[in-house]
Sequence to fold (334 residues):
Amino acid sequence: MSKVLIIAEAGVNHNGDMQLARRLIDAAAESGADIVKFQTFAADRLVTRSAAKADYQVETTGASESQYEMLSRLELTPSMHDDLIAHASIRGIEFMSTAFDEDSLSLLAAKGLKRFKVPSGEITNLPYLRRMAQLADEVIISTGMSTLDEIGAAISVFEASGTQRQRITVLHCTTEYPAPMREVNLRAMQTIADSFGVAVGYSDHTVGIEVAVAAVAMGACVIEKHLTLDCDLPGPDHKASLEPEPFRNMVVAIRHIEQALGSPVKGPSPSELRNKPIARRSLVAARAIKAGEVFTATNVVAKRPGTGISPMRWDEVIGTAAPRDFEPDEFLSL
Fold:
């Protein structure tokens, strides 16, 4: 299989602190991730001032502020984007950001980004999807909270705007932080692939790394996982994120799975070919056998190594006459 694209979702885990944001880029690069991704939005264009927080946001950030107030503290300005893009370039990792509105899409395009991602909440935002289709070379669509019909409608918008299906990757996702294991429904990723003939991946909000690794074993070509420097930091997404060491472990596990998936052709591997004669058996004399004596179940036995007549030829050998004398444990010949 081709290399899985691993996205370290820094998101809003920078908490509005540029030093923390740069350290997240460092951690993503050092983990072996391919992309570090932030979020680009303006609270004024994203939510009303009275919009309620999600339950998980109340749990992680308290109920004293609105969703608008929380998001206002987490905005990245254009100059902040310049700083982070430059730092990612220095660290040798691709910079990406999820735009949550059309103006933010234009901002990212002006910064030179070619790969864009539809967040789960925007999959039904038609003007937004059309604007992204005008700007993106490659599109990743997250599908948390979505039905198959909604996914199909979004793909159709991109295709109608000139984005070929081969340039679209659809991520299965459960929009809850953290996502309960019983609601992951990882098999839905394959349903998406079968239904639309697109490349698929998984945006993981579960605790731990096992679901992301399992997704790769099931055919995911993109894995997205939240990254934080400390799960105990204040902020809405830290609790559902991986710290640098487990994130690194996830990357290593995914790279191992890539190798382990290998070829669909069943046959002995190069290392097995060396072991095959040692582990297999051959037909040998169970005792001394005289020339002309009939081979029987009492004077023939199968023993290692497997460099002589295979025991699968047992019926062919039993009942025939020995062509010569055989010593005990000597390979038989016909």
